[in-house]
Write a structure and sequence with these properties.
The complex is a heterodimer. Chain A contains 8 helices and no strands. Chain A is mostly helical. Classes of the chains: A mainly alpha, B mainly alpha. At the A-B interface, helix 2, helix 5, helix 6 and helix 7 of A face helix 4, helix 5 and helix 6 of B.
């Protein structure tokens, strides 16, 4: 298929993934006894009751997927997988688009500078996660080859927002699996916050709402990989 | 444990008097570990009460448009609604867990105009993120951790926007810097002038 068709198919895929995410989150919330995860004040609000009644356990709340991670190294490699996607996206995309691509949309040079800074953050996340995984005796996942499907600067910004939003939700859904390690959990939180800041800014660049909800819904690893896998070529 | 709000208030009083005492010592002890998930949630609730009260002052000022042409007043209203939702939900969860949720205190934010409001808002949001990031490790229940994560992400989104409104970079570093309760006290405790 040509570039336009591929971009359209990726946009359709993104849209389907988002719709599926919303549907699956709602379905899980309905199916689960005592509805815990799923985002939103109502779901959070039932957490306390469920815990008090002894209904809240990781096993119960993740019945849909048993133990998605074998251990902390797996969680970090999951994060690293996403950080590679983001880092590669900004590095290659900004080089291809250039400042003129951004200013051509009507933005100031400073926007390009900020996007470059975001890319530097993602690169730092890759470096740190890679180092930590290695220190823990694990094998860090390598950068893959990606096709993000955008054909112009506007498309780049749209995909950037999707990646950041997905990243925030991914960290939000994965943090609980680091609960046994205070240091790794805290480190993950310090990355999670930055991704949320990125998402907020990218939303503004896309003329959207930087903070659409009072509670940022998490995504499970399965949901995240469903969104991210189409970008990975090999 | 006594309300975290009271602890902070008393520690502030001691420090202002130049004689750190029992409250300061207990706060210092608290920074090494919270005694329960309820304690952690009440710590969060203390800060959410502060933020909710702060944003209630927003309608007193007019803020104009942000660099992207958005109506700042409208966005700040949304932020305030989020903080109110955080207060409500944290209060409910703490109650369901059998704890006693801290009440709102009385505050003096020293805001005199729109500019000082925005500057203080940025401080509160950034401190809020750092507070959650420093306290998350003390939660023992994974579902509460996930729920707390769903809040701190929103505070970080707020912080990014408030930084932008103050002319500073929305994402100043590649990694957040967590704060201990002691550090949070130093940054935000001064706004609390009396307990609720």
């Amino acid at each position: 298929m040509n570039i336009t068709e591929r971009q359209q198919s990726y946009e359709a895929m993104l849209q389907r993934a988002v719709e599926q995410r919303l549907t699956s989150v709602n379905r899980r919330t309905l199916l689960r006894n005592g509805a815990i995860l799923g985002g939103g004040a109502l779901a959070f609000g039932t957490v306390g009751r469920a815990i008090a009644q002894g209904d809240s356990t990781p096993a119960a709340s993740n019945a849909v997927e048993e133990a998605p991670f074998g251990g902390p190294v797996d969680v970090l490699n999951y994060a690293l997988t996403l950080e590679h996607i983001e880092s590669s996206f900004y590095r290659d995309g900004l080089a291809a688009i250039g400042a003129e691509g951004i200013t051509g949309l009507g933005f100031q040079q400073g926007v390009f500078d900020y996007l470059t800074e975001i890319g530097a953050h993602e690169a730092a996340h890759v470096t740190t996660l890679t180092d930590v995984i290695t220190q823990l005796g694990g094998t860090p996942v390598a950068e893959a080859t990606y096709d993000f499907g955008y054909t112009d600067a506007a498309g780049f910004l749209a995909v950037a927002l999707a990646l950041e939003d997905t990243g925030v939700a991914a960290y939000g859904g994965a943090a609980q699996y680091l609960i046994e390690s205070d240091d790794l959990l805290t480190a993950a939180l310090t990355i999670h916050g930055v991704e949320a800041r990125h998402a907020s800014y990218l939303a503004l660049l896309n003329a959207g709402n930087p903070f659409p909800e009072a509670f940022n819904a998490p995504l499970t690893p399965a949901e995240v990989l469903e969104i991210a896998t189409p970008f990975i070529q090999q | 444990m006594r309300s975290y709000d009271t602890l902070i208030l008393n520690a502030v009083k001691e420090q202002r008097a130049g004689s750190p005492g029992a409250a300061t010592a207990r706060l210092a002890a608290a920074q090494t570990a919270f005694t329960s998930d309820i304690d952690v949630l009440n710590y969060a609730l203390t800060l959410e009460h502060l933020e909710a009260a702060f944003y209630a002052l927003g309608p007193n000022y007019q803020f104009g448009q942000d660099p992207f042409g958005n109506d700042i007043d409208a966005w700040l209203t949304a932020v305030g609604e989020h903080e109110n939702a955080h207060v409500t939900t944290l209060t409910d969860v703490i109650t369901q867990l059998g704890g006693e949720p801290v009440a709102a205190a009385q505050y003096d934010f020293g805001v005199t105009d729109a500019a000082t409001f925005l500057a203080t808002a940025a401080t509160l949001e950034n401190v809020g993120v750092a507070a959650y990031d420093g306290a998350g490790q003390f939660l023992t229940n994974p579902d509460l951790l996930t729920a707390a994560g769903s809040i701190v992400a929103v505070e970080a989104r707020h912080a990014a926007y408030l930084n932008l409104l103050n002319g500073t970079i929305p994402f100043p570093a590649a990694f957040e810097t967590p704060m201990t309760p002691d550090e949070v006290l130093a940054a935000a405790g001064g706004f609390i002038v009396s307990e609720g």
